[in-house]
Structures
1.
Amino acid sequence: MAQQGSGYQARYKRILLKLSGEALMGSEEFGIDPKVLDRMALEVGQLVGIGVQVGLVIGGGNLFRGAALSAAGMDRVTGDHMGMLATVINSLALRTSLVKIGIDTVVLSAIAMPELCETFSQRQATAYMDMGKVVIFAGGTGNPFFTTDSAAALRAAEVGADALFKGTQVDGVYTADPKKDPSAVRFERLTHKEMLDRGLTVMDTTAVALARENNIPIIVYSIHEKGGFAEILQGRGRATIVSDD
Ligand code: UDP
């Protein structure tokens, strides 16, 4: 991989990458498409190859979401517990794909389940990232009524990430959902405050507020970007940068 000296790489030495569970479905309706996992693992592997320290948070929306379960009649807290467990399933699956291609990876869960993976602690997470291991933060924040976007912002702050990358279906933040509203306009840059004031929901407000308080830029990019995430990291692809600088 070229571009060793690129500004992006120097600027973002340690990143937190948030991927939605839906990204893992690929063309399936539910669950995990192993081909997508392998592709994601390769992309993460490229970043590790250029010396970027990578933390990952994966959602659980391909399996369960508490709000949807609650709307269907289940109690919300149990639904959220199921959603958090779904993120652990996804995290274990992604670890397998990363390890398969030789990337040293650990899963740290917010909810203790020592037979499956290690339990999250800030100290351990930071130590592993210092060593260059990929750390997958599973189990969200460990609390109901939160989302994995918030977990990503929280973990980014805890491990001192230089940026929070949010992979979505589109190439940045738009004034409205571009898949529903053809007049939607894409932002090149905006501040955390503008994102909150405009009620832009690409990332939930708790996550944006936490990132803002901790001066963590959020980079929203498309998971379908040609050339993958490494292009975005090196400033070559299309993305929206949310930053107060
Ligand atoms: N969840 C939770 N607390 C957290 C993170 C997640 O209760 O800190 C639950 C919640 O029910 C959520 C589900 O786990 O809907 C899956 O996470 P999310 O919806 O963020 O996944 P994504 O949309 O990114 O796939």
Note: Residues 76-100 form the longest helix (25 residues).
2.
Amino acid sequence: MTPRLILHAGAGLRERTRASAEQIEARLDDILTAAWAVLTAEGARACVRYAVEQLEHEPLFNAGTGSKLQADGVARMSASIMSADDGIFSGVINVEGIAHPVVAADRLHGVPHHVLAGTPALDWLRCAGFSAHDPVTDQRREEWREGRAGRTGTVGAVALDATGVIAAATSTGGVGMEQPGRVSDSATVAGNYASAMAGVSVTGVGEHIVHHAVAARVVVRCTDGLALSDAVLRTLDEASQREYQFGLIALAADGSLVANQTPGVQTLYAARCGERALSFLQAPALHWPAKPSPS
Ligand code: GLY
């Protein structure tokens, strides 16, 4: 099996950042290249963890360092990871003061309770050796002072390795200015899911993503026999009828790849299939192998 990798940096072109589309694409491409090396050397799970860790490290993106602030001025971050080889979903919800929520989510893979939230989660992480890190950047502090709420922003990665294992990881700083304690989709099976048939990472309005159980819905459709492209298009069609707003990246066991979204959303993605690299500046939606798309 030729490995496959797809990353996203949110659905946020319509939320202005100081970076141009070209700068965002260049950064995504760098991370894609580095993560590809991890995919071929260490497999799908290590790859998605590494890719999301790099995306969290980049202050341009709304996850880890550069996370948006909730209404009380605190950055609370959520992340999850799932690999089809053991089917364990693990995650952290609304954790503060760490550099890499996806690494925290990965650490919870190996303990009996796989999803932890809030202050007790942070206490556990400190005991597990996660050191203090302030993820708040000057730009996010300024946005919060100006009361600028968003509606989107998340990062994610889905990979298929040479042994056929699929893994997905997703991380977010939330939408900004939300009610403290709001739970986003990113550390739920609506925002991130992987099975032997398919893996999905979602970005966009968390409430819409949870109402629609997006990642799990697409994966179950593939498990029941639908091609990935059809599973995604049917899911987006249903979501559009409810005026939900989100984008997703997805990958299936047959090697097919998709990046697509509901109307009005632009998913920022970069993908690699063998030697071939693809990115969001090249096409608004990606169905590979090619598939006509309504968007
Ligand atoms: N999808 C990110 C959030 O709604 O918080």
Note: The helical segments are 21-42, 44-57, 101-107, 118-127, 138-145, 206-212, 214-223, 228-241.
